Amino acid sequence: MRLTPDQVQAIRQVAQRELGEDARVRVFGSQVLDDRLGGDIDLLFETDKSQQNRASTICRLYGALVMQLGDRKIDVLLKDPNTPDVPIFQIAKRTGVLL
Amino acid sequence: MTLLYLPEHVEPALLALDLARKEVAHLRYTHETLFSQAITTHWVVALAVDQEMAEKVDAFVGRFARLQDHIGEKLIPRFAALLGESPKAMLDVLAFAEKMQWLDSSVQFVGARKLRNLLVHEYMSDAGLFLDALLNARDATFMLFNVVSRIEAKSKELRLKLSPLA
Predict the structure, then answer these.
(1) Considering only CB atoms, which residues of chain A are within 8 Å of chain B?
(2) Are A46 and A16 in contact (CB under 8 A)?
(3) Which of A13, A35, A75, B2 has a CA-to-CA distance to B152 between 20 and 30 Å?
(4) Which ipTM score applies to this complex?
(5) Which residues of chain A make contact with B135, given a CB cutoff of 8 A?
(6) What pTM was estimated for this model as a whole?
(7) What kind and span of H or E run contains A26?
């Protein structure tokens, strides 16, 4: 996993601030491969609380992450109880690293 | 009399403002025609077979994205240069716009960039999320319009005019 401790801390803080203490966040994709350089940051946020407007939550997470990590390519997936369990979530859970 | 701006930056600033006004007019038209109808999950699902409406959504998303990019990459930086500032990084550009009260929230502006990824209907796997994103983009459009109108007000306050040779 190539995220620095500061980046992990920043991502956790954003997750807790936007989704609450029980939010879980995983990094997946190229950032979990130690032999790669650069690349996007792919994140899966999970919460047991239904979001009133999931797009709005994704935008707030993304905006807050860019403010913390700088203007780099960050992909945000959000899974709440209303989100259909499409394959990308299973892949992210299976291959991702819990932060 | 002391000038409140750098004259050499007037032309690029006004050209960016002129383009922004045109983009606002195009986006306003699509926004009005698209959102004059009731947008529901059922409507979103029907996009898969309603080519005409799907094209309108694409036009809206494209125009939204073009105006947002133009504001962040040209309009704000050129008016910043006019006022003697030269923020380079996007976050510095937005922080300057916040300081000038042209923009209410950098986080909200940055966050709205995500909407265009959520509004690619060809890859839609979640109609509820698409609906949320579309309604968010409907509201975020007014944030973009506000930035342009506030910068336009600044331009009027400074009495900017293109020189006859420009």
Answers:
(1) 53-56, 58-64, 66-67, 70-71, 76, 82-84, 86
(2) no
(3) B2
(4) 0.90
(5) 53, 55
(6) 0.92
(7) strand A24-28
